[in-house]
Write a structure and sequence with these properties.
The chain is an alpha+beta fold. The protein is 41% helix and 24% strand. The strands form two sheets. A three-stranded mixed beta sheet has the order 1-2-3. It is elongated, with a radius of gyration of 19 Å.
Length: 160
Amino acid sequence: MSLQDSASAEAWFELDRNGGRLAMGGAWTIAESARLDRELNALKFSSSVTEIDASKISRLDSSGAWLLLRTRRALEAAGIKVLDERDVLIQRLNQTEPGQLGKLSLRMAQAGVNIEVLYSDHNHQLVLVVDDMEKGRAVSEAWAREVRDRAYVEMRIDDK
């Protein structure tokens, strides 16, 4: 079942032909929750589902998060074991300044943090899965403060 190609759907999901991958994307919000609820309930999961990919979800509110949790529980009820669940770091990069990804990656490396997965969502956010969440969060928060401080200084200079 696929809703990815539907032009009117803000939120979508797609179970591939062999049932091995459930991909999700778009705005999983209350505006889409009733439709998603009906359509997800119609899915029949088999033990062949090996991956849930929510990396293309651009917006998520509590209704969308509940649907994700319920989908996970439906998989578990079908005998599909969830092997791993990871927290992520989300960072906004200045799209007009080249080299930011390299600078942030270097800071992570200098702090002893390995980046295991990295991707950009459709809302200009960088999503990072790291091996040491505590150290990674400290680097990410420091980076965000510096970016905010630079933007404030640049705004103040431009205002004069």
